[in-house]
Amino acid sequence: MAAPPRRRLALSERMAMKAAAAVAAVLAATAEALTQPVVYNQPIALPGPIFVFPEGMPAASAPGGGGPGAAPGPGGPSPGPAPAPAPAFEPPPLPTYEFHGSDWTQGTCGSRLRQSPVNFERLLARPPSQFLDYHYVNVTGFLKVKASGGMLVADMSAFRWGGVSYKGNFYPLQTLVIHGPAEHLINNFRNPIEIQLIHRSYRTSAESLIISIPVWSEIIPEAPNASLPYTYMPPNPFEVDFNKNLQNLISAQPPSEEGSWTELYLPGLDLAALVETPAAPDSGTYFNYRGSLTSPPCLDSATWFVRRASLVAGSSQVKALADALYQLTNSKGSYRNVMPWNQRFLNIYRLRYAPTLTLPAQTGLNWGPNPRTDSEYEVHKFAEMANDKAINAGRYVEDFARRLRKADNAFARALYKPPTAPPPGPTQLERELRYQATVRSVRAAITDAARDVQKTVDTAIRGQATSVYKAVSRLHKEAKDMVFPTAPPGPSPLGPHAPAPMPGGNLAPVPAPLPAPRPSDAAR
């Protein structure tokens, strides 16, 4: 009886302690988060005369410079780790492209107000009216490409490879993502591949700027048969439209299993040649609109620049990327369905290379140990209150667990009844007398049973003998009647002893009387 209450006690105590720890941890984390000031990203130092820091901020200097297609060398830019890199871009939650995003409900994915991608059916030939300044340096060294959420993702935030300047704000490059087929449609045409360069705002990571580069090839790859084994075919460097710059991303087999990765060695990936082909004068024209991320949680705080003229690549290069993406999505393709425009503005921009980019000035008071504004003071007080609440909540839960343990012990003691001591056993004499009495009882029972059996048998034998005697007497009488028939009733002239008349009219002679049977014969 005591085991179940003890188990309930242990379970209740563990649950109470876990709840106390969870509440204390959440409140403590909230207090710590509230006490931390909002710190903007540190000034970014890129090699070469890339950025101009306002108001006397120290500028990074290095010999040489870079431009579209410039290769790094002894006198050129040699990118290195930034002293204070921005937070690394976290890949979005792994989506499934079974229905191409129509079934997504995370975040704002269910909304259709300002979502991406879209279909560009207008302004297909309008000249650009505004400029978007960019500056990239060639990507060299090792780059890890990972298969994540049906996409090929390369984290590029560890080094300062460049960025763009848009409306007085700087957007450094964070991630390179490859989709296949393309997500944006141009005049209802879907390209086989789309490369997205994701940039995050220098001021806040909530704002994104994405440069989308659709890739076209002469032969559009089709989804392979999922039942057949996947076979990687290296691109043919001698085919028509072979893109040497894009080949940097396909120098090894792309990962085709979720979570797998491939490490590439890049002799020099020219990002400027991706966003603007040097040999094509009009390749730097871009559609611009406000949209969202194309994977969960689909935050609608992204600014899109989609290249109007597709990047040309070899068919085998496009097939190598498309086959890996089809393998990741069970031959579905990693693209989201197009979304409605909903009266959004569409602009035409021209990308423009800038040898230097100006970082936005950092406004506000200097940081220190004391609150600088009323808002910070209020937040500080709220943080102290949250910390006190967390401590009090922890103490309350500990007291609750102690009282619960005490009540459970009392309940267990109330249910538990110790067994009473057994009565003392009989003595030797009592056992002997009980044995003799048992023997006498058994003997008397056997004698009574034998008498009953004897009486039953005697009664049965007597009944059988009486029945046999009666049957023999009846047979004797019947035999006697057959031998000495009885005279018919009525008077006879000869008296009672006159013989019966014979059939011929003569009187039958009177037989002599038989001797009487002996008692021994009758008994037989």
Characterise the protein shown here.
The protein has about 525 residues and is α/β, with parallel strands linked by helices. The chain has three domains: about 1-40 and about 375-420; about 40-360, Roll (Carbonic Anhydrase II), CATH 3.10.200.10; about 425-460. It has six helices and 17 strands. The chain has helices spanning about 5-35, 270-275, 315-330, 375-415, 430-485, 520-524, and strands spanning about 50, 120, 130-135, 140-150, 150-155, 160-165, 170-180, 185, 190, 195-200, 210-215, 260-270, 285-290, 300-305, 310, 345-355, 355-360. Strands 3-6-7-10-11-14-13-16 form an eight-stranded mixed beta barrel. The chain has a three-stranded mixed β-sheet with strand order 2-8-9, with no helix packed on it. A two-stranded parallel sheet has the order 1-17. The protein is elongated and about 160 Å long. Residues about 35-80, about 500-510 and about 520-524 have low confidence and may be disordered.
